[in-house]
Amino acid sequence: MRQPSSIASKGCKRSTNVSPKTRVEQLREQIREHNHRYYVLDDPEIADAEYDQLLRELQELEAKHPELVSQDSPTMRVGAEPAKQFASVAHAMPMLSLNNCFSESELAEFDQRAQKGLETETLTYTAEPKLDGAALNLSYRNGQLERGATRGDGSHGEDITGNARTIRNLPLRLRGAGYPAFMEVRGEVVMPRSQFSELNKRLASKGEKNYVNPRNAAAGSLRQLDPKITADRPLYLYAYGVGAHADGDLPDSHFELLQTLRDWGLPVSDLVERVQGASGCQHYYEKMSARRDELDFEIDGCVYKIDSQAQRDELGFVARAPRWAIAHKFPAEEATTKIEQVEFQVGRTGALTPVARLKPVFVGGVTVSNATLHNMDEIQRKDVRVGDTVIVRRAGDVIPEVARVVVGKRPERTEPVTLPSHCPVCGSDVERVQGEAVARCTGGLICAAQRKEALKHFVSRRAMDIEGLGSKLIEQFVAEELLHTPVDIYALHEHREQLIEREGFGEQSIGNLLSSIENSKQTTLGRFLFALGIREIGETMANDLASHFSSLEAIQEVAVNYAEQIAELLKQEKTAEEIDKALKEDVLRQTPNIGPRVARNIASFFDDAGNREVIQKLLAADVEWPQESSKKSAAQHLSGKTFVLTGSLPDWTRDEAKARIEAAGGRVTSSVSSKTDYVVAGEAPGSKLAKAERLGVTVLDQNGLAALLADD
Ligand code: IVH
Q1: pLDDT digits (tens, 9 = 90+) for 490-505
Q2: pTM to 2 decimals?
Q3: CA of 378: how far to CAs of 250, 348, 381, 387, 490, in Å?
Q4: Which of 208, 134, 216, 210 is nearest to 167 (CA)?
Q5: Phi, psi of 378 (to 5 degrees)
Q6: Would the CB of 135 count as within 6 Å of ligand 1?
Q7: Cα 354-386-429 angle, rounded to 5 deg
Q8: Residue 712 — pLDDT band, cuts 50, 70, 90?
Q9: Residue nearest to ligand 1 atom 6, measured at CA
Q10: Is 287 one of the annotated active-site residues of the chain?
């Protein structure tokens, strides 16, 4: 029971001799202080009833004097009108993900790599719990909460400011002083386990669907269009870092940064510690594993981050994850159940994936009734049969898998699982390339399953981002023959009348769907390439291709040319290996990160007349992106050159310098070797400068770099 204190009682008295404006300010100040004590310091000084009384007094005054209402008033947590849909907003700095490790030895490898990159021995880390919730990016301008956004695809998220404001322990305004004029605070929104079960009970009693686990509940609650619903959900924020910031300094040490965020009123987990080296991290991990079950928040591992910002800058990133941090995940959870059936699912590229239909079992916080068996080799290796008792494993949000069979419990007369000779969906032949684990349906776009998956991929958030065209709708449209290829999506407006007749599909939802289809036409080359669903071309590779070649025509030309050369070499009866070797110097193969297999996939995609026709029709339907053509001829002149940055440059941040080099086609790496072309040294350079000098690598200052960048 919280005890009222003398300070609090004083706060509750109504002052009769002050102006409403002064009283409103006094009340806001007191309420903020109590919120902070309650939610951040966990040290309340006032009873709930007294707190409510303060809040009510403030609400009454604001109602009576609307001119005194302000966005950062504690009464403003709930009140925003329901949104129709969330706007997409760019993060000032991308929100990255983390690489994972699952063992002490993988942790040691990560630490070794970091040590090598920094040429340092023992590294200092900040160790944190990895909270299992939803990521949130909060922008504060002059200390006021300006915006809250979901992580989205890492560069753009959804504007959920109205919902973020309802999170109980999230400050609408920062405390104290010294914070940057602009700052993105990054954190995780979680739902306590106990309150999660209560929420599910409440939902069930209203006949609404339950959430499967606290993480889904947190993410789902954050994305409610009506902030009043979010306000009713038990959500809590824990800040774990800062993204972009301007006009103000932050401590170099991450650990100190977290303490500073706490001083500014942001809730930070009190499980955070500063540790030394991989052994310090491992020790922390063991401690957290032991405490895990007693915490009211779910954690799925620990995160170790190099403590010094300068060292982080030096290490940089690979693709979407930093080299200076890693998530150490708790082991997967396992449970025993029975296989009732094995079925084959057909994916976007025709790959047949065997799936075990299971007797439902509760594992890792969710009920699992399907588990992947990966491919035929895996089935044979594990000798999985229908009727078997199996161990099912689930790690975090990874798809559950059948780990192994309990052979002793196998019933009599079971048969090994065999690969179907025909596609279970379209009946086309199933083909298995010698030496490859994957079997594929040869039906291509004839196969409804492949069509569906290709369409789902095309509309997905990171591809063309067509909101409102979800999996269910695509499945129905494909079944009704409304959709065959992505081109048909852009002709859906012609079927407006037919769509309106559908059950549960009113004017408004049609309008929303058609306008998000229309909006998707303005895209980027990288998204478009990703959306095409070329085998093994993920988002990063698609963006790399886009920035390397700058135009679709250029990629297409290079790809078709590569395909023609393969065809020629095949005629000469060359083996696959010989072909890969012969084409090593081809433009396509000289593209960074593109090996023989990916090159082959790109070539065979663009060599297919059907695919080229789909592309032409999409362009004819006005799908377009800003041209990057000038970039290639003029600015790609540093292609193939490797740079290492050390020390701080007078005018450019490290990220800016890196971006400029990359825009000109260069690559920035973290350690100096004889292969490095240039070392760019600023003030206080590290040992990298000495190494560059020793190896005879050209050293540039900022002016030298600027001259090189301009010199095309
Ligand atoms: S740091 C570049 N710290 O885990 C660093 N992330 O893949 C990016 N998460 O969705 C994240 N607890 O929201 C960081 N203490 C913690 C975290 C944490 C949970 C989430 C994060 C992101 C995912 C990282």
Answers
A1: 999 998 888 888 767 7
A2: 0.58
A3: 50, 21, 5, 17, 41
A4: 134
A5: -65, -40
A6: yes
A7: 40
A8: low
A9: 130
A10: no
Confidence of residue 183 (pLDDT cuts 50, 70, 90): very high
CA separation, residue 539 to residues 225, 454, 461, 529, 628 (Å)? 28, 15, 11, 8, 18
Cα of 187 from ligand 1 centre, angstroms: 8
Residue 239 Cβ contacting ligand 1 at under 6 Å: no
- Work out which ligand 1 atom sits closest to the CA atom of 134: 13
Give the pLDDT confidence score for residue 7 in this predicted structure: 33
Is it the case that residue 370 has pLDDT exceeding 80? yes
Pocket test for ligand 1, best of 110, 130, 258, 398 (most atoms within 8 A of CB): 130
96 Cβ below 6 A of ligand 1? yes
Total H helices, total E strands in the chain:
27, 24
> Amino acid identity of 85?
Q
Closest ligand 1 atom number to CA of residue 269? 15
Q: What are phi and psi of 390, to 5 degrees?
A: -130, 160
Are the CB atoms for 91 and 148 separated by under 8 Å? no
Pocket flag, ligand 1, residue 62 (CB < 6 Å): no
Instruction: Assess contact for 324 and 100: CB atoms under 8 A.
Output: no
Which tokens go with 393?
């494993």
Q: How many CB atoms lie within 10 A of CB 333?
A: 16
Answer whether 323's CB lies under 8 Å from 670's CB.
yes
SS3 583: coil
**Phi/psi of residue 210, nearest 5 degrees:** -80, 155
